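Let us work through a complete example step by step.
Step 1: write down the sequence.
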Amino acid sequence: MKKHLKGALRIFIIVVTIAAFAYYVATHPETVEQLKRMPIALLFGLLAIYAISFLAYVAVTRGSLDMFEKKLPRQENILFNAYSTLVNFFAPGQSGPAFRAIYLKKRHDLPIKKFVFATLLYLAFYAVLSLLLIGIGVLVWWQTLIILLAATAGCVAALQWYKKRSEFGKSLRIPLRSIAWIGVATAVQVLSIAFIYGAELRSIDPSITPGQILAYTGVANLALFVSITPGGIGIRESFLFISQGLHNIPDTTIVAASIIDRAVYLLFLGLLFLLVIGLHAKDKLHVNQMKTE
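Step 2: predict the structure and record it as tokens.
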């Protein structure tokens, strides 16, 4: 019953969001004109930065597996992340993490609990860095430092709690290189997203400041932690509207930037789909075989 309710809620949010976008576009034709005027160089630039963000996540996967002395060949790692990204966006319930956990367990003998720990470590870096962006964007340095230390302490405590509750906890010794690899790769991913949002916002309103872009990016990133829709459709925009006191970006700019971002990201997913199909990822990853095991 709960699954049906969650599914209905996701569909409802998506429909309402699409309807809201359609209504806004119909009543604000200048938004369409902004999209039509988007320079082709901006489009290719955004796709290139999305590619950097994707490769950063590939690097996160490498660091996560290195933590447990596992390794994916380079091509398999790229195809695995491309396939799971598509699954996460288009499959019901954002199923990407579930696919990743099952694949790594069946194909590379990585226990689910270890996968969860590695994912939590990545999310901890992601959350702390996102809060750091908000702090840099709107607070003085000492307030930012306090938030950073508090968030880091909370994440470390949560990771230690999970580690102690897991049977591998006492024997796990996390190599410093793995932590550094995940941390640096996550930082590259977060900064890439900031550049994407910054380019989109400034293409609409050149007066947007770097501080506003950083705060906007941090809020948008944190919204993904509670997303129940593909790509956070509707959720991210709601967070950005509610948090206008932080970034001070008008509704019209948020909506226009969101439309640009959704369009570019869907195009990027299309390129990933061509990569997956062209390199026969489903066969190379033995996806059908996983279903029968």
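Step 3: interpret the result. The mean pLDDT is 81.
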